[in-house]
Design a protein that fits this description.
Elements: H1 9-62, H2 66-77, H3 108-111, H4 117-130
Length: 158
């Protein structure tokens, strides 16, 4: 009677061929699956970019409407139409109850002016030019390196 062998030559050759096929196919299959994941991610990014592009194009088309442009000018730049009066509502909780200090020039914001921004800038430049700088009258002249300059008066007693 013959005892069946557990590992026959045929089974060993078949398992070697199977192992060789796995070693050859696995890296290629792994790369393929990895690239499919990357392609799916890139497709999602393209779709989100297209959605953002559509949103931006819709926003750009809104600017063709004159009513939208006027509304944005009123909201963002506080523009008013000729003949209208502009009112600025100030929340009483954000303004302190203390009166503004009387010393020094008044702030442009405190004056409540309705001047254009460039007029406010020019006014602040003029106020800054008229404000005296503290300590310039009593300061001793300095030399080139920051040390006090030598006195130009002649020494007494000689």
């Amino acid at each position: 009677m013959r005892v069946p062998r557990l590992f026959t030559v045929r089974a060993m050759v078949f398992s070697c061929v199977l192992l060789l096929a796995f070693v050859l196919v696995y890296p290629t299959l792994h790369s393929y699956l990895q690239q499919r994941v990357e392609v799916d991610q890139l497709r999602g990014q393209v779709e989100s970019a297209r959605q953002r592009n559509d949103d931006l194009e819709a926003d750009l088309k809104r600017w063709d409407d004159e009513a939208y442009v006027r509304a944005q000018a009123r909201e963002r730049l506080s523009f008013v139409m000729p003949g209208e009066k502009a009112f600025r509502v100030i929340d009483p909780e954000t303004i302190p109850d203390t009166p503004p200090a009387a010393d020094g020039p008044a702030s442009v914001l405190d004056s409540g002016s309705t001047l254009p921004w460039y007029a406010n800038v020019w006014e602040s430049v003029q106020v800054a030019g008229q404000t005296p700088v503290a300590g310039t009258d009593d300061a001793a002249p300095t030399g080139d390196n920051g040390t006090p300059a030598p006195s130009t008066t002649a020494p007494a007693g000689g």
